[in-house]
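Ligand-bound model needed. glutamine.
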Amino acid sequence: MKTIQQYLDSGAIDIAPLLSLVLNKSNVELITQNEYQLTPTEQQTLDAFIQQRIDGMPFSYISGNKGFYHLDFKVTPDTLIPRPETELLIDIALDLFPKNQTCKLLDMGTGSGIIAVTLADKNPHWAVTGTDFSSAAIEIAQQNATTDINFAQGSWFDAVPNQTFDLIISNPPYIEQGDAYLNDLTHEPITALTAGKDGLDDIRIIIDQAPDYLNKNGFLLLEHGHNQQLIIVELLSKNFINIQTFKDYNSNDRAVLAQLKQTT
Ligand code: GLN
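Prediction:
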């Protein structure tokens, strides 16, 4: 039988969090109880998890959850794992409306629901809708909701026919097809990652159709790839004003906010 210390010494990837997960012990307990001998069942479970990590399975799919903003989210291979840079969209959205003002919000391609659920949790008086093409993702998002959120299945605006919103947010797929970076992401849903040759196919659809689904003076807020900001600003300039660009916490261009131009 092996001890906690022997596993810690093995140098296996993510060994401390994996031990914590299997033994239900904190980091401090792993150290203070380092001579604890794992039971055969614990050892079997841990060895299987270590092998999954070696095979490239992300830790969050093994643990089944990932923290985002102030909440913890259930994630499965049907949903993208939340990225820290997406928290930028939450900060921008929270700054947009005075505290007591209500907002009709649409989060398109909600995945595990991080944007819709986090903003609804922070603003229980907002009317929040989350959509996704994947019904499996919608099911996970529903389980993650802490408030009453309206979830709908469908591709982009097909999910919300004849509805209009004060704020539309999306973290759509935006990686270029064939990008070498995708080789590191083989366990995540490819449909949540890539969007055509230049990665802009879905962003183009969203920018094109958003005016029909926005209320007067409504906002569109998008996450995008680090090299896509210029072209997105250009695409927005046809129907939007007050275009603001944002960098993420790694200083990469990462988001744009724009307000619907008034038609007279
Ligand atoms: N942000 C993702 C990544 O870095 C890319 C796709 C997305 O979030 N829309 O892997």
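The chain has a mean pLDDT of 97.
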